[in-house]
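User:
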Amino acid sequence: MQSHEPLRAAVAYAGRRPTYDHPIAFDAGERLTITRNDDEWPDFHWGVTPEGGEGWVLRHAFELGEGQSLDALPASAVAIADYDARELALTPGERLLVGDDQGGWRWCYSAKGDAGWVRKADLSQIEDAARFVMRPMRSTDDAAVADIIRSVMPEFGADGPGFAIHDAEVAAMHAAYARSGAAYFVVEVAGTVLGGGGIAPLDGVEGVCELRKMYFKPGLRGLGAGTALIARCLHAARRLGYRQCYLETLTGMDAAQALYERAGFQRITQAMGATGHFGCNRFYLRAL
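Assistant: Predicted structure:
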């Protein structure tokens, strides 16, 4: 999984189930032990975490300790990138958004709100050019993200009392989502940030996160960015240990609600938690 992802469209031409039920996952800075190499996929090596997690790890995700070698295993290593070995279950003909080729595999996002690795050989009709780039938000994105929120929400009548446009965090989104249990991602086209969305703890409800402030400017709509961003947020939520994801929206935002439902969100009859957004009147929940 990359932090900076140029995404293209592709189609799965065959069905496939994940190889491992409990794939390895770790964050940058964690220690690993590399125990064996893969003869079929030379860019992958079997890694074990101190907690007992194990699985195939891309070579670029770790750095060997001083004096260690892949020719003399086991070897100690340190993760230099966040990594998740999760494979994506495929349905024949399913449309996906895919990242760059990494050792013959690609990190993919599905319309069902899932993310994971797919063999390049299982994909067809891969577009030549990236549609957009998705990445974690940086502090330098604050002004662009605030402008997106403040310009898009009024399009849908969501600029009155009780809507997120008035939240204090809008002016400093990077700092607001740098806290534990939260994450925010932006989507850019040709170097310009045109959309974003994130997750954070749902106030007052343990184990549940909220999908928050996901808005796109017109130039980003119709490219599949909503599909990818929801899947990226839900993947982050799973890594952070949440069991469910909640969201609030508004009558009239029909395209957004269709997107949520395709991603597995189910409509519920009443609000959850203490968001303070009493202007919203549609509520959704998804198991993770």
